[in-house]
Amino acid sequence: MRSTTGLLKRTLAFSALGIIMLRVSSAYFHNSTIPAIANYFGTKGRYEEVNPYLIDDILSVNKSLSKPPSADCRAIHLTAVIRHGTRYPTTKNIKRMKRLYSLVVHESQGAYAWLRDIKHNWNMWYTEDMDGKLVEKGRDDHRHLAMRLATSFPSLISMDNFENNRIKFITSSKHRCVDSVESFQEGLHRHWDIQDKQYTHEINDTLMRFFDKCKKFVDDVENNKTALLEVDLFKASDEMKKVQKRIAERLAVPLSDMTPDMVEAAFFLCSYEFAIKTVNSPWCNMFDETDAQVLEYKNDLKQYWKRGYGHDINRKSSCSLFHDLFQRLDQAAYDHRFGLVSEVVTVQVGHAETLLPLLSLMGFFRDETPLTAANFRTQHGRTFRTSQIVPYAANLVFVLYDCNDGLRLRFLLNEKPMTFPGVDLPDPLYSTVREHYGDLLRGCNFEKECELRGANRKNTEL
Ligand SMILES: *[C@@H]1O[C@H](CO)[C@@H](O)[C@H](O)[C@H]1NC(C)=O
Ligand SMILES: *[C@@H]1O[C@H](CO)[C@@H](O)[C@H](O)[C@H]1NC(C)=O
Ligand SMILES: *[C@@H]1O[C@H](CO)[C@@H](O)[C@H](O)[C@H]1NC(C)=O
Fold first, then answer.
1. 184 belongs to a structural domain
2. What is the pLDDT of residue 461?
């Protein structure tokens, strides 16, 4: 009797401890506001994950990175090509997220605390009219980026240049881009503590949404069901099936309900809740690191075949933006030699779809082996990783310096200096860069690259 009571007491104490431990571990799990899989969100990733020092101080800049190439150098021009900030999901994804939410609420039999959390404490707050619009965090992305760039390059992004219209703003016509450029300007106002100056921008889709204007791209890739074959194959791969299976088990729903689209909707929910609200939502608990790597690869495959090296026209569609960039640099060099640079800074706001083709055209992040559905395992160390390259507010910054030995060009991606592929020394002479891209500078004709082969191609194919 005695020993039984003792055992019972011990059992009770043990299970009480078990409950406490469960609480502690789940609190631990939820405690960090950063999901463990936050580095795998691809184009839906937060900028701070690429530069973690910003988590502590969003306005901090690494001064050693904005020092001129040498003491005798003077910065004379800066062009920045920037992706819009954090945005709402598109209508298509919101619809999917709603279907997933309904599935979890009505079908899931799982017993996890985070599942109860989704069912009882989480509300489906996304509405279809949010359709891709910039969120408040997205405005902050651009305000803060503007302030950091002004701190890093004070002689170029200066109040004097701003007030005398030597800083030019160009944007894609999309709302999220226009709102981003206005937020960037607000950031500058705040940085210099000025109130009244009205600022303007120019909308130029020829430049910032070249992909819509390139007929060959639209026909051969955008509207071509087989152009993204590798993505479809990967969605049907064993790796993806295992993810579906693991998640169906965690939720305790039939495997047939957990389609790749539903898995992706859950991944999006986790990434949007984090990017928009900076919360580690219970949706993130559906994934372990392997799941996240598979989904990251799926997204990278899509970008690779639609915006990167997968098809040559993806890169070539950015020829006009490429030439525009070098014309600005040439003009600044010329102006500097013969007087005052009239356009000291150019800020251009567009999309991930604007930045990726340009980076690919210039040879950045080119892996030796193409990304395919079959080589997920061997592509672990790939350089084409959109989580690192194009998070929200991703930015390409080109700074032209006048030095004793000539003009030099620095290139920064997301505020980190990069070497041009094939040039391989930091801050090369501008003439070296021009030589390196000689073929593109002499060719890469947008009209020619983007026209369809033969006038009546569609008919002749019948
Ligand atoms: C600043 O940049 C330098 C040079 O790349 C690097 O060594 C240093 O760690 C960076 N500092 C911070 C705080 O990131
Ligand atoms: C857009 O930019 C291109 C290249 O700089 C230029 O030729 C064109 O005139 C601009 N279009 C508009 C509408 O400003
Ligand atoms: C569609 O894409 C496939 C695969 O890249 C390509 O072979 C085919 O020529 C494309 N079709 C058209 C009409 O461009």
1. yes
2. 41
Look at residue 208 and tell me if it is in a domain: yes
Look-up: residue for tokens 């860069």?
433
> Closest Cα to atom 10, ligand 1: which residue?
62
**CA atoms of 428 and 426, how far apart (whole Å):** 6
Is beta strand 395-403 parallel, antiparallel or unpaired with respect to 416-418? unpaired
Question: What spacing in Å lies between the alpha carbon of 305 and ligand 3's midpoint?
Answer: 12
Q: Which residue in 174, 167, 199 sits closest to 83, CA to CA?
A: 174
Give the count of domains, the chain: 1
Domain of 177, in residue numbers? 2-90+134-216+291-450
Q: Whose CA is nearest to atom 3 of ligand 1?
A: 64
Q: Is the CB of 460 under 6 A from ligand 3?
A: no
Q: Are 171 and 208 in contact (CB under 8 A)?
A: yes
Nearest CA to ligand 2 atom 13: 204
Q: Which pLDDT band, with edges at 50, 70 and 90, does 339 fall under? A: confident
Answer whether 65 contacts ligand 1 (Cβ < 6 A). yes
Q: Residue 148 maps to which CATH number? A: 3.40.50.1240
pTM: 0.90
Q: Where are the alpha helices (DSSP H) in 226-288?
A: 229-235, 238-251, 260-277
In a domain, 392, yes or no: yes
Residue 359 lies in a domain: yes
Report the atom number in ligand 1 closest to the C-alpha of 62. 1
Distance 415 CA to ligand 1 centre (A): 11
Instruction: For residue 135, give the nearest of 100, 172, 183 by alpha carbon.
Output: 183
What integer pLDDT is reported at residue 189 of this predicted model? 94
Element (H, E) at 80: strand 74-83
